[in-house]
Amino acid sequence: MAVQIKYFASLRDRLGRAGDRLEVVDGLTVAGVWATLWPDTPLPPNTLTAVNLDYADLAQPVADGDEVAFFPPVTGG
Amino acid sequence: MNIELRAAPFEPLVELARYQSGLDESQSGQYGATAILIGTMRDANDGATVSSLTLEHYPGMTERYLQRSVASAFQQWPLLDVLLIHRVGALQPNDPMVLVAVWAAHRAAAFAGCRFLMEELKSNAPFWKREDTAAGPRWVEHNTPG
Description:
- The complex is a heterodimer of chains A (77) and B (146).
- Chain A has helices at 9-15, 30-37, and strands at 2-7, 19-23, 48-51, 54-55, 67-71.
- Chain A is of the alpha+beta class and 77 residues long.
- Chain A has a single domain (2-71), classed as Roll (Ubiquitin-like (UB roll)), CATH 3.10.20.30.
- Chain A has a 5-stranded mixed β-sheet with strand order 2-1-5-3-4.
- In chain A, strand 3 (48-51) and strand 4 form a beta hairpin.
- The termini of chain A are far apart.
- In chain B, helix 2 (61-76) runs antiparallel to helix 3.
- Chain B has helices spanning 12-26, 61-76, 107-123; strands at residues 2-6, 33-40, 44-45, 48-57, 79-87, 89-91, 96-104, 127-133, 136-139.
- Helix content of chain B is 33%, strand content 39%.
- Chain B starts with a strand and ends in a 7-residue tail after the last strand.
- With 146 residues, chain B is α+β, with helices and mostly antiparallel strands.
- Classes of the chains: A alpha+beta (77), B alpha+beta (146).
- Chains A and B meet through helix 1 of A and strand 4, helix 3 and strand 8 of B.
């Protein structure tokens, strides 16, 4: 089983794709998702992260079926 | 209470009049203060002319975040009602981008609630602006301080 990953805005453009899928391993965290998918690309400073549509920090565990998102600082309004 | 994302242009004053006519039936005689902020697309930013703009959001999370923000505003101040409309998609200069209207018995709560919701939209809700300029498209990296 797996987690779905989404990227938004300038981060998506920079990475060249809108999402990924990753098999879950024991102890996987938000930071671990990034490190597994992008071993040669440090997470850009100020990147925001969410799990299942709520803001989450990098240490938050992720589980099967979760949706994990990475995106740049927000600029609405 | 009404929270909406709109993919097409909207007219804030028409929306406001329509919403308030409904409010007059349900909360007649209760509100003494209505605070309103209308955000409009400008034709320049950060030293460049901006010909158009695209607002991206995170479907699902953006709506959820806005609902929580409005719930939080109701917890912090004695508000009677809130109307919040935010554009997504392609905008042209002068297009309304956001409408926040807050009704309360008194102005302190109305101003504070409206200000809080605007700052939530600007600083925390997942929206991103991409501007089209003569040099090509560019992502807005930060909003101006309120």
